[in-house]
Fold these 2 entries.
Entry 1:
Amino acid sequence: MLEQKMNTLSLYAQTEQGIARPAIEDALAQALQPVKNDLRKVLIIPPDFTRFHSNAGLITQLLYHMLSPACQVDILPALGTHVPMTQEQWQLMFGDVPFKRMLVHRWREDVVPIGEVPASYVKEVSEGLMEEAIPFSINRHLLDPAYDLVLSIGQVVPHEVIGMANHSKNIFVGCGGPDIINATHILGAVYGMERLMGRDHSPVRKVLDYAAENLIKQIPLNYILTVTDAPGGVIRTHGLFIGPQRRYFEKAVALAQEKNVIWLDKPLKKAVVYLDEHEFASTWLGNKAVYRTRMAIADGGELLVLAPGVDKFGEDNAVDVLIRKYGYKGREYVIDTLKNAPDLGQNLSAAAHLIHGSSDSRFKITYATRHLSREEVEGVGFSYIPYDEAATRYAPDKMKDGFNTMEDGEEIYYIPNPALGLWIDKNRM
């Protein structure tokens, strides 16, 4: 298979400024060199705009121009349950790659069954928390034998469902159907975020590893993995890892644990997290502010989320309705509610999200919004403050990353983008 003939490589930045664009381009060219002349049709699977700072946009753009027009290049953003990319988002992320090359993943309609992970294995890796087999389905384009090569691109970074994002998650969740999306999200939620965030070999990762080893061997798949951060919004690529084997993912995990996990000497009494209005339009995405800080915030502390672009709760209407109905009321509430709530039981990814987005009453969560009303925000269990009021006191353009002392002596910890890290009070570990 072609993916086995590609050159594999691990590239590490030599400075804190990250790997320069020419070096990334050279690495991609080197990886493709053995197979480039044999390719007629290629499928590229990058993340969508919600992972803009992965640098997958640049990599996709470089690959497109290396391969086209000698072969047909199609691009399938790994949307998962997210809404399709707009033309404006596409241009911001992928530059001059033609918008018409985009294939849209519709997670409820465009998937084909490929098998299942057996119940015995699920029970084993979940420590008995789940005992049912997990059916897998993925986007039909991945199974098109006309593709000579499938390139999955994405950032390895701490993640609340699987521990460390990307690798086969990009395929099975980003391009997966309802069964696997629901099962993985609820498995991660009941297992416990604190037990898996920032770690490899979580129960969800083990389930996906099983599927990767047993259900998709026929796909000519290769992975291009990045480790990045973005101080001041400027993307720095600290590592680039290319290869089909899991060991390249493990190298990326080790580097991401170094670059994207921030250890704090004391718990945070108040964290202020900014959600870029172009990147975060829902609490479904914006609650990364909750996920990624919950291990750092003190009991009785406060998380203030500055969310100027958030205008809804769910990414699609069905999920939005469920969030408004049940709210972010904690793990035990959700688990108990599932016993008598068939609408929530049929959308377990939403149930998992409700667990993830709650502090379990351990600390206060306040959303500062422009587009959602006080009634809407408080209706799902969060506290509310008007955005302009919050942003006047905690001005995003004046805050520095990390600890800030306000004029009245209040100490806050400011995070400009929660998607790029995991913050942990070292005394909790």
Entry 2:
Amino acid sequence: MKRLNIAIIGLGNIGSHLFTYLKDNKKILMEKNNCMPIVKYVSAKNRKRKRSININKKLWLKNYLEATKIKDIDLIVELIGGSEGAAKKLVFEALKNKKHVVTANKALMAKYGDELAKIAEKNNVNLEFEASVCGGVPIVRLLKEGLIANKISKIYGIFNGTSNYILSSMDKENKSFDDVLFDAKKLGYAESNPTADLNGDDVSSKLKILTSLCFNSFLNNKIYVEGIKEIDKTDIDITNKLGYKIKLLGFAELLGKKIYQRVHPTLIKKESHVASIDGVLNAVIVDGNPIGQSIIQGEGAGPAATTSALISDISSVLRGNTKFPFSISNKERKKLKFEDIKDRNFSAYLRFEVIDTQGVLSNITNIITKNKVSIKRLIQKTDKIKKTSSIIVITHNAKDKYLNKILKEVSKKNYIKRKPKLIRIDDN
């Protein structure tokens, strides 16, 4: 019987879940793949840590890097995390030593994916990373194989479950951003340090990988990133009444010969499919020719969803499907022209918290029109007790640089009570 010997490096929640799955489902995987997966070795930073699994002492490696040199190891599963340090050393060494690699490490792939793909191709081994993007949503394999006949013009969606949970909970519950974040940590939906989720970096890493797969390009760092920390309950309530939901979205789109990558909170119509994706779910939308629009959604994180993606990648290796990591040879991948969003046109939601005094509204509208932006809708809400006003403006399409110029100019005025808000609108 053909066997595939596996080393799992990293035994946190996901590593432990994967170990258990492989142990309990060897027969099923063998029947489906005509090859028996065997967990030959494991390694973790803290061997003495209490875990929900029992591991034979014989399986433990003293040094995780031993896995890259042992002859009877065929595949290494990297679950350490992070773009530097142990994870980087492990994956580079494994590929150089002609070991197949399966990883859930989006940060590593986003930063070093081009170099790693080159090494994997040179040594004719697999570098699989389905679990690095959107957990149980099989978007990487879909782009590599299922949609291979399509010329893709746009990919976008909800790529982070933590931020989606926070925004949808703020919408449904009468709670502030901080209160919902506290709940998310308590429920395990947010890390103790959720910075990468909240500032958009997590989505940015995933988007870089997806962009490369969609457009046969090298990974690119020219990407606009904005998180959700500035979104408050007032924005949620106002935009709700206007017929919108706020979602943190990642976009990569081809306009002419230019590619735009961006991550930011976005207003989308309530009746759109993406608006209905709540909680920790992820959703990916792909526009392609000839297929049109494809939508795929599911659990974006967690041990079960990530294990599902890891098993998919392991099965690919079990079947002997050695293929290019980014679908095509490194020699065929392109250096495309990636553009900043400053010259991209958007309609937008602007909110100004001001002292309620004569001339403020006219001053703001003058600044808006002076910067080549036309007003589609204007709402003013006055608090007579506090002597303040909320001025909400929905604009027609305008260049992003002009929209930001408005905010910069208005923010300097002495009538401004708080930092002005800008949320871009996607009407598609």
